[in-house]
Specification:
Number of helices: 3
Largest sheet: 6 strands, antiparallel
Number of strands: 6
Strand order of the largest sheet: 2-1-3-4-5-6
Structural class: alpha+beta
Oligomer: single chain
Order of helices and strands: HEEHEEEEH
Radius of gyration: 14 Å
Shape: globular
């Protein structure tokens, strides 16, 4: 399954936005809201240490006017192999992840697909079900 153009564009824009603040950031949470035929992104205040993002996400519930949600989080896969995952989900059950490797830190090198981070994708989508 491929993300829709809307979700893919949102994730590309979010990844670019987050990348301007560099690496070693805490997790960042965003509400996605339908507006003027598109999707607007609103960063949310969120206290997460990043140690257990799945648990932290389980405490979140969005109001019905929120179309979707997104999360940006950095992980170290191996020494010197940092990645940033920007995970998005829409109430229509569309989910996808943008994946940026620190070693290939260019917008043109960002991969976007569904099931790149299935547990995170499910956890973000679950925030929309409450």
């Amino acid at each position: 399954m491929h993300p829709t153009p809307d979700l893919e564009n949102v994730l590309r824009d979010l990844d670019r936005h987050v990348s301007t603040d560099g690496w070693h950031q805490p997790p960042r949470l965003f509400a996605l809201v339908a507006q003027d035929g598109g999707i607007s992104v609103v960063e949310q205040p969120w206290e997460s240490s990043g140690e257990d993002v799945l648990r932290d996400l389980a405490r979140i519930s969005w109001p019905s006017d929120v179309t979707g949600a997104a999360l940006s989080v950095q992980r170290i896969l191996e020494p010197d192999h940092d990645v940033r995952l920007t995970v998005g989900a829409l109430r229509t059950q569309e989910v996808a992840t943008a994946l940026r490797y620190r070693a290939h830190d260019q917008d043109s090198e960002v991969a976007i697909a569904a099931n790149l981070a299935p547990r995170l994708e499910r956890a973000v989508w679950d925030t929309l079900q409450g």
